[in-house]
Design brief:
226 residues; Tetracycline Repressor, domain 2; 62% helix; globular
């Protein structure tokens, strides 16, 4: 199993980039340093010019990989959702009971993130910080419909669909499984944001987003859990 996982590669839709950053040392440095800079500076302040200075490379070399910083952000968010999907599939594969499978999925998609040593050029903790604070900027644009048609958000939608299917197995009579599945993911991000920035309007400062969302989901599905 360890040998299998060591060869695992997270794939992001090719329509997002000009050249796959995973195929070169420069590409991996672009990803590694952009995560660190966006996490620290914020997406608005981050520029390819600043990134070029950081990685000691011409700004033009970054454009060989990404047309603009928006596509870079879409790449980073897509990588994150693919990483979560990888964990979800791996950790729920052998779980037989639908309720336990859904509980595990909620935990994976809403927990506080720890760094994954299998991907040495990506700091998942910093990337999670970007997702919490910047994720909506990847799709709240005038071009969202066109980008959706071009497959930019395929992985995110696939992750939501996996959770939707788990909800249906728990309660096939529930009318809104897709809405609940997307709510799990988005509410998790929002509660982490509130906990860090507006903690007077969330109860997750005393518990966790995972506990809150688990309670919300299973009460909504009218399922009693231990």
């Amino acid at each position: 199993m360890d040998q299998l996982l060591s060869s695992f590669k997270i794939s992001v839709p090719a329509s997002i980039y000009n050249k796959d950053p995973e195929t070169s040392d420069l590409g991996k440095r672009i990803i590694k340093n952009s995560i660190s800079m966006i996490s620290t500076l914020g997406f608005e302040v981050f520029t390819f010019k600043k990134l070029g200075v950081e990685i000691k490379s011409n700004e033009s070399s970054i454009y060989r990989y990404f047309d603009n910083k928006h596509k870079l952000l879409v790449y980073l968010t897509s990588w994150y959702w693919a990483w979560l999907e990888y964990q979800l599939v791996l950790e729920t594969y052998s779980v037989a009971l639908p309720i336990e499978k859904l509980k595990k999925a909620i935990t994976i998609t809403t927990k506080t993130i720890e760094e994954d040593s299998k991907f040495t050029h990506i700091n998942e903790i910093e990337l999670n910080n970007i997702i919490i604070n910047e994720n909506s900027k990847s799709f709240l644009t005038k071009e969202v419909d066109k980008e959706n048609q071009n497959g930019y958000f395929t992985i995110y939608k696939r992750l939501v669909t996996r959770i939707k299917d788990m909800i249906i197995l728990v309660n096939p009579n529930y009318k809104y499984p897709a809405s609940l599945a997307s709510t799990i993911i988005e509410t998790g991000l929002h509660q982490h944001f509130l906990k860090d920035h507006f903690n007077t309007i969330t109860d997750c400062k005393n518990s966790t987003p995972t506990q809150f969302i688990s309670n919300l989901v299973f009460k909504t599905l009218e399922i009693k859990t231990p």
